[in-house]
Amino acid sequence: MKWWYPGKTKYPIGGVLTLRSDRMAEVEQSAHTIGGHHTARFFLEVDHPTGDRNFITPYYQFQPTVYKPPVFPPRARGILYYHQPSPEEPVMSGQLRFRLCDGYETFDQGTDMHGRNGIDTWHISLYAIVKSFYLRSVVDMLLQEGLVEREVIDKVAKLPIVRTRAPILYSFDTPFVTEMSRPSLRLALVNPDMFTIINIPYVFQHYLPPETPYKGRIRARFEVSTSSEHEIVPTLVLRILEHIDAVECLIPNYKHFMAEPTPGTLLSKRVSILHEDAKHGPWSYPLYSRPHSDRFRKFIGLP
C-alpha cells in the first residue's frame, strides 16, 4: 500500500487491473485498505483514457457541504469491481462496488461493503458513472473490458442530470426500501431512455382522518395484479418483502383500516371506510388513471 499526501490529508492509493469479477484471479488483483478514510484513490489500468486522468477518488458518502465527510468502515479492505447485471436484469442496474476480501484468492467468498444505512450496498450507479466528469476512466474501462455496450453509454449520456435520494427502480419490480410513516411514495424510474421522478400519494395513509398508522422501514416491490377485477386495466399492487425495522402501529386502539403490514403479503386497506368489519383489499395503482401513471406506462413499455 502506498500513500499520497495532499497537504495534511492522506489517502490510500490502489491499482485496479480489472473491473471484471471473473478476471480477478487472472490478473492477480490485490486488495486495498480504505477503512477509516473518507475517500480513496484508485488508478485504473486503462489503455487509452478519454480524459486527462486515469484515476478516481470515490467517497464513502459524498456531502459537499460537510467539512468532514463520513469515513469508510473501520478495517474495510477489499477490491473495487463492477457488478454486471445478468442478462435477465436491467442493464442500468450495473454498479461499481467494493468487495470486502483479502485479495483475489478470497474475492468470490467476500461480501460487498454496505453504505451508511447498513442496508443498501455501497455503490456508484452506471448512471452516476456516465454522468460524472471525474469517472471517465471508469467508462473507458467498462468499454475496454466489454462490461457495458457503447450504445448504452451513449443513451445514458443523453439523459438529464437528476439528483435525488428517492429509491431508484430499474424495472417496475425492483425491490426498494421505504418508510411507512411517510404517506406517499417518491420513486425514481430509470432506464437507458428515461430518468424521471414520480410521487404516488396516499400509499401508506388511511382515510378519515388522513393519518399514517404505521412507522418503520420495509422492503417492498411492485407486482402486476392478477385479480379478475384488474383484467381490463393493467394495475400494480405492492408486495411487502421484509421489515427492515420493527414496524409499529402509531394509533392507539387502531381499527386496522390498513391491514398490518406482514412480510409476504400485499399492502391492503379496507374496501369501505364506513364499516369496521369490511374486508381488506390490496392497495392498487391503475396504470391508466392515477397521477404519473403515464410515466410508469412508458417505463414498463405500455402505450
How is the secondary structure organized here?
Blueprint: E1 2-4, E2 11-16, H1 24-27, E3 32-33, E4 41-44, E5 55-56, E6 77-83, E7 95-100, E8 111-112, E9 124-125, H2 126-131, H3 136-144, H4 150-157, E10 168-169, E11 176-179, E12 185-191, E13 194-200, E14 214-215, E15 217-224, E16 235-243, E17 248-249, E18 268-270, E19 280-282, E20 284-286, H5 293-300
Parallel strand pairs: 2-4, 10-12
Antiparallel strand pairs: 1-2, 3-6, 4-5, 6-7, 7-8, 7-9, 11-15, 12-13, 14-17, 15-16, 16-20, 18-19
What are its keywords?
2 domains; 4-stranded mixed beta sheet; disordered N terminus; 303 residues; alpha+beta; elongated
Question: Can you characterise this structure?
Answer:
- The strands form 6 sheets. Strands 3, 6, 7, 8 and 9 form a 5-stranded antiparallel sheet that branches.
- The protein has helices at 24-27, 126-131, 136-144, 150-157, 293-300, and strands at residues 2-4, 11-16, 32-33, 41-44, 55-56, 77-83, 95-100, 111-112, 124-125, 168-169, 176-179, 185-191, 194-200, 214-215, 217-224, 235-243, 248-249, 268-270, 280-282, 284-286.
- It is elongated and about 70 Å long.
- The protein is built from 5 helices and 20 strands.
- Strand 1 (2-4) and strand 2 form a beta hairpin.
- The protein folds into 2 domains: 2-157, no CATH class; 168-300, no CATH class.
- It is of the alpha+beta class and 303 residues long.
